[in-house]
TrEMBL record:
The keyword Hydrolase applies. It comes from Paraburkholderia phenoliruptrix. Residues 54-265 form the AB hydrolase-1 domain. Keywords: Hydrolase. This is Alpha/beta fold hydrolase.
């Protein structure tokens, strides 16, 4: 059964029943929040605490509130946590252009400029992990390190999609949150189609592209990831200079929600190393 105390270190929500019903715990009060006008979109962000900055980049179809277990952990560790709703997700808007990971990476840089952040650690989950890795390629001077959880960097890294009750529960929560937060609450199906098209056609980075990455990278793969092949995670760790691979046992693509204490230990060890 899901824990009745969702912020407890003993939280286990492997089936995502709690997440479907209630979402992640609410984010704390922010020091600063707002929107950045960039490339035809209004990008929502929020910043919490002080200290060395960590930017959290959520997965496709989700929003920043999905980091409700991670922001308090980063604050307790003495970090500044920054969350960003990707364009078209959550409170952020988009224009008519197709979704592109490189465009979303440029949105992150615009938020960093607004917050006067010269450099930050990037913690990315699924689509957010790809955005973080793109930043490590194109703007290494702004990136202290990339925590890359549950994503591919070329089409060969994904498994054939199989619907499961866990995926369905996550999708249902995303639908509810989109209707609640979005400036276009009636457009959920068009939103899903557009994001899905990006996932189908991107990313397309070759081994030679990965070999040029010079920031610290941790590839994090869950034992039961529904979308990403283990051999792809191993390939990324081999192809990126100095990259390390960490396995998270007993969880799936939704580890930050299923067993946040396990995920947070790995995340905080990474941020302590790259921001020392």
């Amino acid at each position: 059964m899901p824990s009745s105390r969702p912020t407890d270190d003993n939280t286990i929500d492997d089936t995502l029943e709690h997440f479907e019903a209630h979402g992640a715990p609410p984010l704390p009060a922010s020091n600063e929040s707002g929107w950045v006008e960039h490339e035809g979109a209004r990008i929502w962000y929020a910043s919490y605490g002080t200290g060395a900055p960590v930017i959290l980049l959520h997965g496709g179809l989700g929003h920043s509130g999905n980091w409700g277990y991670q922001v308090p952990a980063l604050l307790e560790a003495g970090h500044r946590a920054v969350v960003i709703d990707s364009r078209g997700h959550g409170r952020s808007t988009r224009d008519a252009r197709p979704y592109q990971y490189e465009l979303m990476a440029s949105d992150v840089l615009a938020v960093m400029d607004r917050l006067s952040l010269a450099r930050a650690a990037m913690v990315g989950w699924s689509d957010g992990a790809c955005v973080a890795m793109v930043l490590g390629m194109v703007a290494p001077e702004r990136v202290a390190g990339v925590f890359f959880f549950g994503c591919n960097m070329d089409p060969g890294g994904t498994k054939e999609f199989v619907a499961t009750p866990v995926i369905d529960r996550c999708f249902n929560r995303h639908r509810q949150d989109y209707v609640r937060l979005s400036a276009t609450p009636d457009d959920f199906h068009a939103f899903v189609a557009a994001v899905s098209e990006m996932m189908r056609t991107e990313p397309n980075y070759a081994a030679r592209d990965l070999a040029r990455i010079r920031v610290p990278v941790l590839i994090v793969q869950s034992e039961h990831d529904e979308f990403i092949k283990l051999e792809h995670a191993e390939y990324l760790a081999r192809s990126i200079p100095g990259a390390q691979l960490r396995m998270l046992p007993g969880v799936s693509h939704f580890a930050p929600l299923q067993r946040p204490a396990l995920f947070n230990r790995t995340m905080l060890a990474f941020t302590a190393r790259v921001l020392a």
